[in-house]
């Protein structure tokens, strides 16, 4: 009896979550409850029974309802989704049940959740051709990402990857990108200096998104935006974040369930509106570059795509294809690095001894940084700032910018741990959970310890135990760029400022395709006074 009551309460909470819309409750909610229950009852009982696999090695995730699969469990846990997955695995491993679990989502193909590095290597590298993004996933993301690099498979992906990889050369990093990052980091420092004088509270998370957008716009699209200098966030950025949040909700739905839910709760309409705003921004950039007579000699990504013919065709890329490229690169280059910076600063505020160790390294490697007008040396950044780089890696271990990943099998296959995956089924792995498992990182897995990255007696983790930047043929193209930009910015800020988080308990992640902070990172800024200067 109590479990029925609990299930009913769960159902109501789940429906409330997906239907919550201050403006359109009432008729829609009533229709939704009746319609959803009738529809799901009719279909899901049969569907889940039909799709439930014969397990080998993978165990059933808790919270399976014969009628609703894991939808209620996921809906209830949605706001803390990554931690729910972590706790489920923690409990499963404590019971000796292994590294892979099975998940059933109404109307969607069943999927496996795994945190086994051998399985991750298998999907990302060994059987790369057998695991694709797949039509369902691509359909979910299409409104926002279109046919851009994150949302394609096969030849369309290959062509974009080849074209994009041209900008990620050591020469471009050293001679161009570093100077761009340095310039924007100075603008950020000036703003923080001003905030320190006025003692205002600033949302560092939002400022980091502007910092990385400005860098990305200049490097990839050849168009300075200077959003850091503006008084308020760009309208584009607000719409972009909201569009991502809606797109992410789709990841725990089947396509049909998504259509019904979004029709009922209005998310479909809202997404169209947000995408329209992001499109206007992208199309303005494209029009400006098409009109610019110098763009033929420019070296940025947009210039390269503008100059290219489509493979096997005499035609160039259409505005819509260029728009897809721009939007995908904004997610790639703005959100990931801005969020990595935000979580790193947050961890630093909680671990003053790490800040002290960073400052000691900065004093040794870049003694004039705090007053330096010449910018940061490339070799120092990529080779000598070992501890600062470890700090960035460690923050990403606990707060990976892409917290969950998913691919679908083209043909039936057996994972290295013995789990049978049938054609069309999904394999999802969780960098967020993997970064927190004692089985992978030792007894202190949950502690923030940059030292673990520089211990000589411990082998450095490979990309399958630490799949934060993906691995194999689709490994992140921008990993080095992210370290360059991230570490350059971090050392400048750490050398000059102390940050106090207004309320650490309000720093939680929000649900998006990446790992933003739901309510931002509100900090008070103080100019750092080195000890030597405080001694009278
Ligand atoms: C801390 C920062 C970053 C993290 C954690 C990160 C992580 C990732 C991950 C997990 C993927 C795979 C996504 C997927 O499965 O589709 C990826 C792909 C990619 N990343 Fe990054 N990334 C970061 C920064 C950057 C930057 C600065 C760029 C520069 C534009 C970039 C460019 C790309 C591109 C183009 C891909 C697509 C690769 C492909 O599908 O072939 N990333 N990144």
Automatic annotation (TrEMBL):
InterPro entries: Cyt_P450, Cyt_P450_CS, Cyt_P450_E_grp-I, Cyt_P450_sf. GO terms for molecular function: heme binding; iron ion binding; monooxygenase activity; oxidoreductase activity, acting on paired donors, with incorporation or reduction of molecular oxygen. Pfam families: p450. The keyword Ribonucleoprotein does not apply. Heme binds at residue 476. Keywords: Heme, Iron, Metal-binding, Monooxygenase, Oxidoreductase. Its cofactor is heme. One of its GO terms (biological process) is lipid metabolic process. Belongs to the cytochrome P450 family. This is Cytochrome P450.
């Amino acid at each position: 009896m109590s479990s029925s009551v609990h299930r009913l309460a769960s159902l109501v909470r789940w429906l409330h979550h997906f239907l919550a819309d201050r403006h359109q409750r009432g008729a829609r909610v009533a229709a939704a409850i009746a319609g959803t229950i009738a529809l799901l009852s009719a279909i899901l009982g049969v569907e889940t029974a039909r799709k439930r696999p014969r397990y080998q090695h993978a165990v059933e995730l808790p919270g399976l309802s014969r009628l609703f699969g894991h939808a209620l469990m996921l809906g209830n846990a949605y706001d803390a989704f990554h931690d729910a997955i972590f706790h489920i695995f923690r409990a499963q491993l404590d019971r000796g049940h292994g590294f892979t679990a099975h998940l059933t989502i109404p109307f969607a193909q069943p999927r496996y959740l795994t945190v086994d590095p051998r399985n991750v290597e298998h999907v990302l590298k060994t059987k790369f051709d057998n695991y694709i993004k797949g039509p369902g996933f691509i359909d979910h993301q299409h409104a926002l990402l279109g046919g851009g690099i994150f949302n394609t498979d096969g030849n369309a992906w290959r062509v974009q990857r080849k074209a994009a990889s041209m900008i990620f050369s050591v020469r471009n990093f050293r001679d161009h990108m570093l100077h761009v990052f340095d310039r924007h980091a100075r603008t950020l420092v000036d703003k923080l200096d001003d905030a320190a004088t006025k003692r205002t509270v600033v949302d560092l998370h939002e400022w980091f998104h502007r910092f990385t957008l400005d860098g990305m716009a200049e490097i990839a699209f050849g168009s300075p935006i200077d959003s850091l200098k503006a008084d308020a966030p760009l309208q584009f950025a607000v719409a972009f974040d909201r569009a991502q949040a809606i797109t992410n909700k789709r990841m725990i739905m089947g396509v049909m369930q998504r259509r019904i839910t979004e029709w009922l709760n209005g998310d479909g309409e809202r997404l169209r509106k947000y995408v329209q705003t992001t499109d206007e921004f992208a199309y303005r950039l494209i029009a400006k570059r098409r009109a610019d007579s110098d763009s033929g000699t420019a070296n940025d990504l947009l210039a390269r795509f503008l100059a290219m013919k489509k493979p096997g065709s005499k035609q160039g890329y259409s505005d819509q294809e260029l728009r897809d490229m721009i939007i995908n690169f904004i997610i790639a280059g703005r959100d990931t690095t801005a969020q990595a910076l935000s979580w790193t600063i947050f961890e630093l505020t909680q671990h003053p001894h790490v800040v002290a160790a960073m400052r000691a390294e900065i004093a040794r490697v870049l003694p004039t940084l705090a007053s330096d007008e010449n910018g940061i040396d490339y070799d120092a950044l990529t080779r000598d700032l070992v501890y600062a780089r470890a700090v960035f890696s460690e923050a990403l271990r606990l707060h990976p910018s892409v917290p969950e990943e998913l691919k679908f099998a083209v043909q039936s296959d057996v994972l290295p741990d013995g789990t049978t995956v049938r054609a069309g089924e999904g394999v999802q792995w969780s960098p967020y959970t993997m970064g927190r498992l004692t089985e992978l990182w030792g007894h202190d897995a949950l502690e923030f310890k940059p030292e673990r990255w520089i211990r000589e007696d411990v082998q450095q983790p490979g990309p399958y135990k630490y799949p934060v930047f993906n691995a194999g043929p689709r490994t992140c193209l921008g990993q080095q760029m992210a370290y360059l930009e991230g570490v350059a910015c971090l050392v400048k800020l750490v050398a000059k400022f102390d940050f106090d988080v207004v309320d650490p308990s309000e720093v939680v992640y929000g649900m998006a395709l990446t790992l933003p902070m739901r309510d931002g990172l509100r900090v008070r800024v103080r100019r750092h006074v080195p000890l030597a200067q405080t001694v009278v």
